[in-house]
Specification:
Length: 151
């Protein structure tokens, strides 16, 4: 795990925060270089699929002119949802580095199942809770602001 890349994912999360999106950021790395970066855009684009991970995967695929992101890693500020985990596996990303676990305890169980090797795809290495303090702080600050606005 490269702390620099995780910090870049947090920069993306901050952009989402400033746009009133749930502050999740992702970067995709190949050959020790960031090739794609994204943050949540679900609210702005009114599309359920505009999660940071999916946007980053699309950007990386367009850059490489290939949907297969072999030998790429993804750094995410929060553990991916099952939809994003499936896209990560299908795109053949090798390693997933997450700053923080999802608060839904079932999510990690589902992800481990998705990331297992199968007859079509290799196993995805999944490492979690790499920067719990920073991940918790940005999410807590975001939801605290949301609650205060609703009072």
């Amino acid at each position: 795990m490269n702390k620099l890349f995780m910090n870049e994912a947090f920069k993306e999360a901050k952009k989402a925060f400033e746009l009133n999106e749930i502050p999740i950021g992702a970067v995709i790395v190949k050959d020790n270089k960031i090739i794609a970066r994204a943050h949540n855009m679900k609210e702005i684009n009114n599309f359920v699929g505009d999660h940071a991970e999916l946007i980053a995967i699309k950007k990386a695929s367009l850059l490489l002119k290939n949907w297969r992101l072999d030998d790429c890693d993804i750094y995410i500020t929060l553990e991916p949802c099952p939809m994003c985990a499936s896209a990560i596996k299908q795109s053949r990303i090798s390693n997933v580095y997450c700053a923080l676990k999802n608060s839904d305890s079932n999510n990690e169980v589902i992800l481990k199942q998705i990331f297992k090797a199968d007859k079509n795809n290799k196993k995805v290495n999944f490492i979690n809770n790499l920067d719990v303090e920073k991940g918790t702080k940005i999410l807590q600050n975001f939801f605290k602001l949301k609650r205060n606005k609703n009072l």
